[in-house]
Specification:
With 118 residues, the chain is mostly beta strands. It contains no helices and eleven strands. It starts with a strand and ends with a strand.
Length: 118
């Protein structure tokens, strides 16, 4: 099985920055990796995603503030979050579309908490 592990969450004041990391546990090449978030009482929502070739997409709410990049050598993606505001407070989840046993599956991490105080 492939495990996806997030790190880098924490608490920051409004206007601050955090960088989240997400790595797949095996030496496997995940064709797509992305970030979602879920705030208390709300549904999980898409934040950003990146294709193997580097093409990125962002939710409108984070465009211009968040930047997603990937290191294909380590199968790790990095979500740089700048100009954070309290509305960004949520549990952030990483997922990856990764091969296992000749097929592709979506794997989810356990999440990392981001808290932005005003």
């Amino acid at each position: 099985q492939v495990q996806v592990v997030e790190s880098g969450g924490g608490s920051v004041q409004a206007g601050g920055s955090l960088r989240l990391s997400c790595a797949a546990s095996r030496s496997t090449y995940c064709t797509y990796m992305g970030w979602y978030r879920q705030a208390p009482g709300k549904e999980r929502e898409f934040v950003s995603g990146i294709e193997a070739g580097g093409t990125t997409e962002y939710a409108d709410s984070v465009k211009g503030r968040f930047t997603l990049s990937r290191d294909n050598a380590t199968n790790t993606v990095y979500l740089q979050m700048n100009s954070l505001n309290p509305e960004d407070t949520a549990m952030y989840y990483c997922n990856g579309k990764c091969p296992y046993g000749g097929l592709y599956y979506i794997y989810w991490g356990q999440g990392t908490q981001v808290t932005v105080s005003s």
